[in-house]
Specification:
- It is a single chain.
- Helix 4 runs parallel beside helix 6 and helix 4 packs parallel to helix 13.
- This protein has a single domain, classed as Alpha-Beta Barrel (TIM Barrel), CATH 3.20.20.
- The strands form 2 sheets. It has an 8-stranded parallel sheet, with helices on both faces. Strands 8-9 form a two-stranded antiparallel ribbon.
- The chain contains 13 helices and 10 strands.
- It starts with a helix and ends with a helix.
- With about 325 residues, it is an alpha/beta fold.
Length: about 325
């Protein structure tokens, strides 16, 4: 069964369950999973600081986190491949030369896809035939200056090639669909989508808005919506926002995207809370706030999109998703 058909099946089952429980308002709800990086650090005493490296060095730890999210109720499992493109990996020191870089990109993405797929296959063996979680290949920005000026020199070509290389490896690993997340600049996201348009897999597309109504690069909700409409409807399963604080101030931003793109399914992945910066280490940490569940509950009451995907981003955990599932089912 192809990803689009599986997605439709999940939506249909969710809608039937809501109706059976007496709930007539609100779109059918699908659960996404939560953060990967912070969970890896919790369960590992190893010194590896780059989450992507776990795919190669400690794959069972990655698969165990996928299992925990599945047990928590996630309908979509995201591969541990965020930003696993050559322009980002070149900055991490995981590969020494050009040839090594190609090999590392391929290995990390292929393994990441396979780990997510293996976790889902094992989970399905002990669950009903109606259990059909999807695996999503995580694709993030490049963190490269080339993304800021994609129209200069050969930047556009290099960006597209970097994303094309990553997507190819994810497909080789057996991923169901592509998830574009945490992009802050619509022109870089456009390069990623142009590369993805060469392949058959459908997409979920999310942007991250640093401020309520724009990103740090000046991208507005309307810029994002306009970009989504450039591509065939059959390519896109859902579109929305990820990596935002669970803050009521974002409700208008969500309204603007929904108004522009409805009835396209809406995708929302909130952070656990507002990040707190450790001035000594320069690292941000997240504490789970009640606002996470308040904003998720508000979103769950929306009627506009055909379906709603609710998941967690930075600082969330399998326990967060489990609690979210109980809250949403309690509303039925």
């Amino acid at each position: 069964m192809q990803a689009r058909d599986k997605f439709k099946k999940i939506v249909k089952l969710k809608k039937e369950k809501q109706q059976a429980g007496g709930r007539t308002a609100g779109s059918p709800l699908l659960l996404g999973d939560g953060a990967m990086g912070t969970e890896l650090m919790k369960i590992s005493s190893q010194t590896t600081k780059i989450p992507l490296a776990y795919n190669l060095k400690f794959p069972e730890r990655v698969k165990e986190i996928h299992r925990r999210y599945l047990t928590a109720g996630a309908d979509i499992i995201i591969s541990n491949t965020f930003c696993a493109n050559r322009l980002y990996l070149k900055q991490t020191g995981l590969a020494a030369g050009k040839n090594d870089l190609t090999e590392v990109v391929t290995k990390i993405n292929r393994r990441g896809a396979r780990l997510a797929g293996a976790a889902v296959s094992e989970f399905q063996k002990t669950h009903s035939e109606n259990c059909c979680p999807l695996t999503a290949g995580s694709i993030g920005p490049t963190g490269s200056e080339k993304a800021i000026f994609p129209d200069q020199n050969s930047n556009q070509e290099e960006l597209e090639q970097a994303f094309r290389e990553q997507i190819t490896a994810l497909i080789e690993g057996g991923i169901d669909l592509l998830l574009f997340e945490t992009f802050s600049y619509h022109l870089e996201l456009r390069a990623a989508l142009w590369a993805a348009a060469e392949f058959e897999l459908p997409w979920i597309v999310n942007m991250s808005f640093d401020r309520y109504h724009s990103t740090n690069y000046g991208t507005s909700p309307e810029d994002f919506s306009c970009l989504i409409r450039e591509f065939p409807r059959e390519k896109i399963l859902a579109a929305g926002i990820n990596c935002i604080a669970p803050d009521p101030g974002y409700r208008e931003t969500i309204d603007r995207i929904t108004t522009e793109l409805a009835p396209l399914p809406l995708s929302l992945y909130y952070n656990a809370g507002t990040p707190e910066l450790d001035v000594k280490t320069g690292k941000a940490s997240y504490q789970l706030e009640d606002s996470f569940f308040q904003e998720a509950g508000e979103a769950a009451g929306r009627d506009e999109p055909e379906a709603l995907i609710l998941g967690g981003c930075c600082g969330t955990s399998p326990e967060t998703i489990s609690r979210l599932k109980k809250q949403l089912e309690g509303d039925l």
